[in-house]
Write a structure and sequence with these properties.
There is one protein chain. The chain is mainly alpha-helical. Helix content is 75%, strand content 0%. The radius of gyration is 22 Å and the shape is globular.
Length: 108
């Protein structure tokens, strides 16, 4: 037996579809925010490194990270762990907190 569609069926389907769209949008906004934070942290590291007249190679050596990894962090194209951020901050003469504060002031 075939059941006739009702207005409540339509509203339920629309609501479910709308919820999926909202979740996808929330996920996309979260991704964009994450990328902006990556870029800001990279900019803050680059800014401080240049203030100290350190090359990427020098900072990488002080922080015990590979130079290409540091380059990707500064470009905002690499995820970085708190542990690595802390090593970089210490090598730059900053606390992790101060590095994050500097990053917050950077344009994304």
């Amino acid at each position: 037996m075939h059941r006739q569609s009702s207005d409540s069926d339509y509203l339920q389907t629309t609501s479910t579809s709308s919820s999926r769209t909202d979740l996808n949008l929330d996920h996309r906004v979260s991704e964009l925010t994450h990328l902006a934070v990556q870029r800001q942290l990279g900019q803050a590291i680059l800014k401080r490194r240049t203030q100290l007249n350190l090359s990427q190679r020098q900072l990488a050596s002080l922080s015990n990270v590979h130079r290409t990894y540091l380059c990707e962090i500064e470009n905002g194209s690499r995820n970085v762990t708190i542990e690595t951020l802390n090593k970089l901050a210490e090598s730059l003469g900053l606390s992790l907190f101060a590095l994050v504060q500097t990053a917050e002031k950077c344009e994304s």
